[in-house]
Amino acid sequence: MNPDEKNEDTGIVKEIIGDCAVVELLVNSSCESCAMHGLCGGAKKVPIHKIKNDFNLKPGDKVELEISAGTKVFSSVILFLLPIVSMLLFYAIAKAVGFSEDVSIIVSFAGLLASGIAIRYIDKAYQNKLNINIVRKISE
Fold first, then answer.
1. Total number of domains in the chain
2. Residues 94-125: pLDDT tens digits?
3. Strand 62-67 vs strand 48-52: parallel, antiparallel, or unpaired?
4. What are the two backbone dihedrals, phi and then psi, of residue 35, each rounded to the nearest 5 degrees?
5. What is the spatial distance between Cα 84 and Cα 80, in angstroms, rounded to a whole number?
6. 2-32, pLDDT tens digit by residue?
7. Whole-number Å distance between alpha carbons of 140 and 127
8. C-alpha dihedral over 48, 54, 60, 63, to 10 degrees?
9. Domain that holds residue 63
């Protein structure tokens, strides 16, 4: 194994805009084997981030990225817990209002839909605020 490829978080510089690099994250071996890769897009959807360029990078350069633990935890909570909490909350509210069991279950699915809309809004609102840094340029 090449020592440059030990870090899981790598990307390719797609373009330079001012003092920022537009970096496309690379799908790695942990993405391919993850049972949940269908939720984040896996190989189908490639995340792209605009990151401050302190390394005089050019399009096509491969870089090692540092994604903060807080960013990873926040993303996981939003993606996996928010839908469950929303379903339970909508179900509880429907039962408290007096709806039957069947109607409450249907309302809980509305909570799932609402969480999907919320996740999309959160993704758009925070996409440029994530704590992702370029650590170094990886030599080819």
1. 1
2. 999 999 999 999 999 999 999 999 998 888 88
3. unpaired
4. -70, -20
5. 7
6. 444 344 688 899 999 999 999 988 876 656 5
7. 29
8. -70
9. 3-138
